Amino acid sequence: MARNVLISVRCITMAFLLLQIALSPMPAMASDADPEQDFCVGIVASNTIVNGLVCKSPATVTVNDFVFAGLATAGNTANGAGSAVTPAFAAQFPGLNTLGISMARLDFAVGGLVAPHTHPRATEILIVIEGSLLVGFVSTSQQLFATTVNAGDVFVFPRGLLHFELNVGTGPAFAIAALNSQNPGVQAQPAALFGSGIKNAVLEKAFGLTAAQVNQIKANF
């Protein structure tokens, strides 16, 4: 009898603990690890491999390490895509190292496109400064969320999901993106599929293409 009572008490206690865990608010998880010091200005040229960049000595850090002027100048859109992306990631802006944030400037000629791509380590939020963009992402259930955004509008692309930006206005367009990782990563789907060396047989079967069609597409990459 006493043994049965003890087992019942233990079961009730365990159930109560599990209920507490289920109802407790989960801690917010950032894309990058939290910093363990005020700052860690990265050494881009270092050959030491760590998760991020090796820190330079705090004694050598200056205010200039926290300034990046690279987004002030429009990118060159005279290319096949008609677009240019200027990143301000830790590799270009070492002061971002360990801070879990980065930015990019997107410039578009008329009809310019940033091809479908993903950021495996970051959510992206985009504000249109000039022009009109058709933007969208595809969920893992293959649902498309797309709309046209204009100057002053903000759009968010959830982390890791395939997304794109296309200039649908009558003039050039310009936008600024912020991402919650110092190194969000970029994988452009066309180049990943047709420029990485995947065997033709895989692409032929996946897309219903002939060998000649696959080779024609691959020639662009």
TrEMBL record:
Chain ranges passing through the membrane: none
Signal sequence annotation: 1-30
Record keywords: Apoplast, Manganese, Metal-binding, Secreted, Signal
InterPro entries per UniProt: Cupin_1, Germin, Germin_Mn-BS, RmlC-like_jellyroll, RmlC_Cupin_sf
Compartments, as annotated in UniProt: Secreted, Extracellular space, Apoplast
This protein's record includes keyword Metal-binding: yes
Pfam family name, one: Cupin_1
Residue span, Cupin type-1 domain: 69-215
Principal cellular location given in the protein's record: secreted
Family: Belongs to the germin family.
Protein name: Germin-like protein
